[in-house]
Each structure stands twice: as C-alpha cells, then as structure tokens.
Sequence to fold (264 residues):
Amino acid sequence: MAASPLVTVMINAARKAARAITRDFGEVVNLQVSQKGPADFVTRADRKAEDVVREELSKARPQWGFLLEEAGEIKGKDGQHVWVVDPIDGTTNFIHGIPHFAISIGLTRNGEPVAGVVYNPITDELFAAERGGGAYLNDRRIRVAARRDIHDAVIACGMPHRGRGDHVEFRAELAQVQAKASGLRRAGTASLDLAWVAAGRLDGYWERGLKPWDICAGIVLVREAGGFARDIDGAADVLATGNILAGNELISAQLGDCLKAAKV
Fold:
C-alpha cells in the first residue's frame, strides 16, 4: 500500500498508541482475578491512548479539530476537517481479555467521512482507506464479498445490552435476519465489523445507536472496498443517527428489506 501523507499520519498515530495499548492489554489478564477487576485500569488506558493519538495528529495537522470518545469535541481553526477517534473500540472485549478490539481513527471533511484507519494491535491487522484511493488490509487491496443472496451470507450485528438500546426492536430485526441469513455473528467491535465487511470476511452488518467514533473510519473502508454503508432507515447522515447498515449492493439491499419487515 502506497499510503498518502494523510493516511501515513493516521497510521503512525495508531501504531504509536498501539504500543501502550498492547502493554496494557497484557496487564488486563492479570487483573481479571483481582476483586476490583480491570475496569478502572482500562479507563486510564483508554484515556492514555487517546492522548497519544491526539498529540500525534495535532503535530501533523495543528489546525484541525477533534471528536474524541473520552475528551469530546475540540474545535479546530480549520473548520472543515475533524479527526474522529476511538482509542479502544471494543472496550468490553478489552476488559475481559478478548483480543478483538481496535484503534479507530476517522477523518471528516465538511461532515463527510473521507479517510479511516482501523488497527487491531493484537493481530497486527491494519485497515486503511482514503476517499478515491481504495481500501487496504496491511499491504493488500481489499474488496467486499461478491455474494448475491442473503441466504448464503454471514451477517454481523450489534446487540443491545442492559440499559442500552431498544431490545424489543432488536429482537424483531434479529428474527427477520435469522430466518434468511446463512450465519450470524456478534463480535463487539463496530469498527472491526465494518473493516471485516470491507475485507469480505462478513457479507453484511447492522447496528443501531452507535457514536461517530465507532463508525467513521469503517464507513470509508466499506465504501472504498466497493460496498455500501448507510443509515438503516434512510436518513441522510449516518454519523448523526448511529444506525448503520453495510454490505455489497445486493446484500445490503436484502438486509435492509429484512430490517424494514421487522417494523410491520
């Protein structure tokens, strides 16, 4: 992959933050057996990683703003460009010692996602894309899967848990997809779900109630891999709603039909 200067900045920030995250993840396993557990430790790790990413991106583009999971919105003098960062997407996996989480760095220009990097430091898989430049996994160009029928498809989803989301709505949607799809997966890291759709490992994905930092980078990956990433209900701004549906043209349309049928 011949990364542009912009994507190179994003990759360097992700890799620098990953060094500390990888060390911290090694400590999580030891903390599982303690009475207090690893939650407080992970919160500190999250903030530390976010600080590293912010510092690295600010060095390269000091005029650009930020939308950060921990620190919130930081306006930039530029006004057009905003970095959208989740330092540890899949925090629950991280807390439980499950090696499926990612550093997610997206960039919006005038509100539109235009570049993204999603990096799992444990597997050393780095997904990167920039508008018009294609999508890559490490040095390999990736494309969405070519399956044409949802009956042959493996579909990922996000599952609302205690205190979050509309459980009744989700169960209705799940029943519709369950009746059609070849397989269902729930891995717990939205940015990697989208990256895996981009890489053709998953055929489709849907989830409601996400934040911009969960999906910004992944949206670019899916679109640059030849897929569709849009709002489930047809709203113009999926970053604003956080209700995302992704896949190739045919699978995303069939998945959308399933979700619509759940409302009837």
Summary: The radius of gyration is 18 Å. The helical segments are 5-31, 39-60, 91-95, 167-178, 190-198, 212-224, 238-241, 249-261. The domain at 150-261 is CATH 3.40.190.80 (D-Maltodextrin-Binding Protein; domain 2). The mean pLDDT is 93.
